[in-house]
Every structure is written in C-alpha cells, then in structure tokens.
Amino acid sequence: MSTTDLLVQDRPAALRRVLARPELGALIAAAAVFLVFAAVAEPFLRVSSLGTVLYAASTIGIMAVPVSLLMIGGEFDLSAGVLVTTAALTSSMVSYQLTAVTWVGVLVSLLVTLAVGGFNGWMLSRTKLPSFIVTLGTFLMLTGANLGVTKLVSGTVSTKPISDMEGFGACRWLFASEVTVCGLTIKATVWWWLGLLLVGSWVLLRTRFGNWIFAVGGDAAAARAVGVPVARTKTVLYLGVGFGAWVLGQHLLFSFDTVQSGEGVGNELIYIVAAVIGGCLITGGYGSVVGSALGALIFGMASKGIIYAQWNPDWFKFFLGAMLLLAALLNTFVKRRAERGPR
Amino acid sequence: MSTTRFRPFRRFRPACAVLAVLAAVAGCSSTGGLRAEHARSQAAAAGGSAVTTPRWKIAMVTHAGAGDAFWDTVRKGAEQAAAKDNITFLYSNDAQTQNQVQLVQAAIDQKVDGLLVTLAKGDALGDVLGKAKAAGIPVITVNSGQEYSARFGALTHIGQDESTAGQAAGTELAGRGRKNVLCVIHEQGNVGQEQRCSGAQSKAGGAFQVLYVDGVNMPDARAAVSAKLQADPAIDTVLTLSGPMAATGLQAIQDARRPVELDTFDLGTQVVAGLKSGSVGFAVDQQPYLQGYEGVDLLWLYRSNLDMLGGGKPVLTGPQILTRDDADALAEYVARGTR
After folding, report:
1. Is A261's CB within 8 Å of B96's CB?
2. Chain A within 8 Å of B93 (Cβ-Cβ)?
3. Which burial class, exposed, middle or buried, applies to A339 when counting CB atoms under 10 A from its CB (0-12, 13-18, 19+)?
4. Which of B93, B127, B212 sits opposite A255 (nearest CB)?
5. Do the chains contact at B66 and A43, CB–CB below 8 Å?
6. Is the dihedral of CA B15, B19, B25, B26 positive or negative?
7. What is the pLDDT of residues B166-188, one digit of tens each?
8. A40, A42, A46, A48: which to substitute to probe chain B, counting the most B Cβ within 10 Å?
9. B287 dihedral zone (left: phi>0; alpha: psi -120 to 50; beta)
C-alpha cells in the first residue's frame, strides 16, 4: 500500500484537502530525515540533542516565517541574512556609544531594520525592478555598511562587550534565556519562533491581509484590478522580514555579547531553502508558514544530525543540497497527485 | 529508432585499441603524481595506536571556513595524534559564530571525553564552554582566543600569541628595511588577524596600511590587492596572513608589475617555492600541525595521567620565522600536508 495508490483512488473531500496542503511534502521529508538520523546516530535521540536541534531550527525558523510570507507574496529578500547582523550591530553599538540602557539600542535597532525593510518595499514599488535585483543591492550595501560602520565606530571589526551594561540581563532574558525541563533545554528563540509561526499562519489563513498576500503573489495585475493595495501589501511583507531580522539579531547579541561584523552572508539563501522545502513556490502565490517551520526543522536536524552521526562534515553542504532537491521534488510530486483529484 | 547511428568506437575499433595502448604506455609519468604519493605515504605510515588507554572520544570545533588548507593541516596533526593515542577524533567547523556555538553544543551532547575549540569569536563562546565545564568535559582552546582561554575554564591554550607574532613580523620587516607595508586582512571579524597587523605595525617603523579582502573569493582578493598596489606606488611590501593569501598576493604583485616584496604569516606550497626563489622574503609560521597534534595529545595526557603543559600560561607554537635557508626541508613537508 503506497501513498500513490491512496492518492489516485476516489477519496473523501476531507482527505483530499489534507493531501493538497502545501506542507504535506515537507512533513513527509521531515519525518524521513528524522528517521534516518534516529537510525544512524545514537546521540541524536537524546533529550539534550533535541534541544540543540530545536535551537538550530529556531535560528532559521524565525526568519523563515516572514521570508515564506514574502515568497508567497511573490518576492525575494536577499538582504535578510546580513540584516540580522545589522540588527545586532546597531543594537550593540547604539547602547555602547550612548552609554544607554540596552533597551535603547534594542529599540533603535528595530527602527533600523524596519527602515531597511521599508526601503526594500519602497524601491520595489517605485522602480518596478525585480525584487531579486533590489534586495541584491541592499544586501551588498548592508554587507559593506556592517563592516564599515563597525570599524568606524568601534575601531575594530567586532563590537565591544555590553554585558556589564544596565538592562542587559532583562534583554538577555527576553531574547536569549533558556529553560531546562527534564533535561530538555529550550532557548528563548524557540518561543519567539512559535509566536511568529502562530501569528504568521493566522495572518495568512484567517485575515483579509492574508488573502491579499496570496493575491499579489499569484497575479499582481489581477489583484490590483480588484482593489488590492499591491505596493502596500508587499512593503508590509518586507517590514515583516525586518522585524524577524530584529528578533534574531537581538538574540545573537544578547546570547554572544559581541557581534562580528562580517557574519550573516549566505543565510538569506538558507531562509529561502526552508521556505521552499516547506512548500513555497519560487513564483509566488502558493505556500505555507507552517511549512517553512518544517523546512527549518529539516535544516536543523540535518545540520546537527550529521555531527551526531559523526559523518565527515566536509560533505555537509552536499547532503543539504541533495535534501533540498529531494524535498522540492517530493513537494511537486505530492502537489500534482493531489491536484489531479478523484478519477 | 534510426538505423544509421553514429558509433565512433565500433567503427574505428582497431584504431581506438592502438590509441588506448599508446596512451597507457606513453601517458605514465615516472615522477610525481598519485603513485609517488602512495609510495610516500606507505613509507610514512606506521599505523595502529601506540598506547593501551581506552578508546576516548575527542571533538574539535573550529571557526574555519570550508576547504581551508591551514585547517586541513591542523586536522592532519590532530588525526595523527588521535591514531597514535587510540582516540576517536571528531572534527567539525563553521565560520559563523552561532553555528560554531551549536557545533560545540552538539559535541557536548555527544558526551565527548575532551574538547578542542578555537576562540576566534571570543566572548561568544563563553556560555557554551561553561556548559562543557558543567558536563565535566576537559577543554583546551586552540589557535585563537588565548586571552579568553583561562576565563572560560580551559585547561590551557595552544597556539601563537598573535600580537607577539605580529611584532616578530614587524621586527623582521624593519630589519629588512621595508618602508611602506600593506597588510592584507582576509577574514573579517577575526580578531587574531587584526592583532597580527597591528603588532606588525607597532614594530615595522615605516608607513603601514591595512586592506580588507574576501578570503573565500581569491580572484576578487587578487584584483583588490593589485588595484591597491597600482593606486599607491609607495607600497614596497605586501604582508599577507595565510598561505593561500600569500599565493594570491604573489599573483597580485605580478599583475601590478612592480617590484614589491611579499612576506607572509603561515605556509603553503607557493610560499615555500617563493622562499626558495626569493619572491617571498620570510614567513612567520605558527605550526598548525603542532596545534592539532598537541591539542589531542595534551587531552590524552590529561585523561590518562592528569598532566598539563604550560604552567597556566599558553603553550606557544609560534612565531617561527622561516627564510630561504629552511625552504628545502619545508618543501617536502608542505607537499606531505603537515607544514
């Protein structure tokens, strides 16, 4: 009895709805990855390891939520990776240079990331350039600014420690604390991730704005014709990416105390990978937020599972690429079978 | 289904056979290549461990990027010591802070018997090393971050003091009468590289400037260095911070068509060839093989006999200044991948 037999027979509508969910492929892929590592890596199944895997997944998942929403809205953001670093650097340097309580840096950092997101959205709607190009420009500018400004302000390429400043403890509790329950260590990022996941999923599936996201991603011209504010919708989606980058950036700062200015490059692709494994189409108009979480989870399991299995880490990217292709293939396969409907 | 398919091999089968034999006979090199390497490694390999201690598990987590020759040498040294000391050696690396921290955590999850960590990212690894201490895992820090080592509860630090190495390079530069030095930093965010350049600057005496390039994009780095050399005709020395970057620096100097001396930290095939030919003035080596080898070996000594080197001070593997006189011996070891 294979899934394909199941898919081609007459089925009740409810089952068909389940099979047509964009997350289904990702769910199967996640289960497969879990089983593989559970079979080959004994430490993978320990409770402490689960905490590490969840943490790894959350640091991708937090960004995969807004990135998947943006991709459903039909756009890219290649600046998402370095924007996280920008958020952390801004927060750290503002607090340090002004000798202010760390909350000041945290708030200024939020303004900066939202401004970058707003800039991306504004450029996109005013210039009509593809978002790939617009955000590629932002990505390069931010990469340079991260290094240039840090060097200018701090005199070195990393920020100065701020752990002895007022407010650090509270900020750390909010962004980087951890709770240990029966050996399972859950970091603050996991809660943030869950929160963003719930909000993002609710917005997408239960609000008018969610319909707009699908509409602008599916066919922007048609959406505009029926009165959807396309430019505003896309700008809000970019602001969402800015917000996600702010959260993750604060986490990096308050858990590591110092920030290296050159980091974050390449992570934007990993967020996109998580969204695509989770069922988002690269062309927009289709996908899911929950799927992006499964994508992040697959990434977290794979990246740490390879370590627990004691495989040679030289091959890590190779496995990752293969897994991406397989998951994406599985997605399209499931989707096609599901769309075929009853015969 | 067409019937007139082009089958070159079937059609010219005799000719192909003759060609293949000719290629097999004429194509063999009597020197170098894989065969020579096999002969060398067979001669070198003793094989098997030299001790009867239990099979411990030691993990090494570095901040290396993918495919870096220097870290490959560190790894070779560690693997050699692991083979000798009957140790299961696990290596992992990631250039991004958060990923390196997660890898250290993953090693702790596996309940390893010893941990070797690089601290290029300094403060960021404090928390996770605290967890290693709580789990009772002995930690030795390697290569970078010696100022953090004791604070994070490591047994000792193995490596080179980057400021000292920088000053050694600066002294050597001054002794050679270099007037205007360009120091090339290729890993943004690596505190050690900053210290090398500023250490060299403090002793070099002449004009000194720093250039940032992208160490994982060599063509780009090459163009950046040669553009700088063309833009500033006063520069008479390029100081690079790694073997591969030295090779790139040599190419950039050729591109710029100016008589500029290249000096470098660390070694590589091209650096040794350059020392021999005179295009490289000197190399400041920190002996990466020794860092990996001693890291594993000291953890083994600690577990088997509670020994620790250094007396609370770092165990230094450098700087070792290498010049033309050392080139011949080095060439063999570099080819072997242990220098």
Report:
1. no
2. yes
3. exposed
4. B127
5. no
6. positive
7. 999 999 999 999 999 999 999 76
8. A48
9. left
Place of tokens 């459903």: A72
What is the DSSP pairing of strand B280-285 with strand B315-316? Answer: unpaired
Are β-strands B87-93 and B56-62 bridged in parallel, bridged antiparallel, or unpaired?
parallel
Determine the Cα–Cα distance for residues A78 and A73; give it in Å rounded to an integer. Answer: 15
What are B329's two structure tokens? 């011996």
A-B contacts at Cβ under 8 angstroms:
85
Token output for B70 = 């220097």
Q: pTM (2 decimals)?
A: 0.83
* Residues 188-207 (B) with a CB less than 8 A from some CB of A: 188-191, 194
Report d(CA A113, CA A100) in Å as an integer. Answer: 20
Give pLDDT, residue A294. 94
pLDDT, tens digit (0-9, with 9 covering 90-100), for A230-281: 999 999 999 999 999 999 999 999 999 989 888 899 999 999 999 988 888 8
Judge whether A209 and A203 are in contact, CB under 8 Å. yes
3-class DSSP assignment, residue B264 = strand
Of B111, B194, B212, the CB nearest to A156: B194
Q: How far apart are the first and last CA of chain B?
A: 59
**Residues A73, A124: contact at Cβ < 8 Å?**
no
Tell me the per-residue pLDDT of B114-144, one tens digit each, with 9 for 90 and over.
Answer: 999 999 888 899 999 999 999 999 999 999 8
User: Could you count the other beta carbons within 10 Å of the beta carbon of residue A145?
Assistant: 17
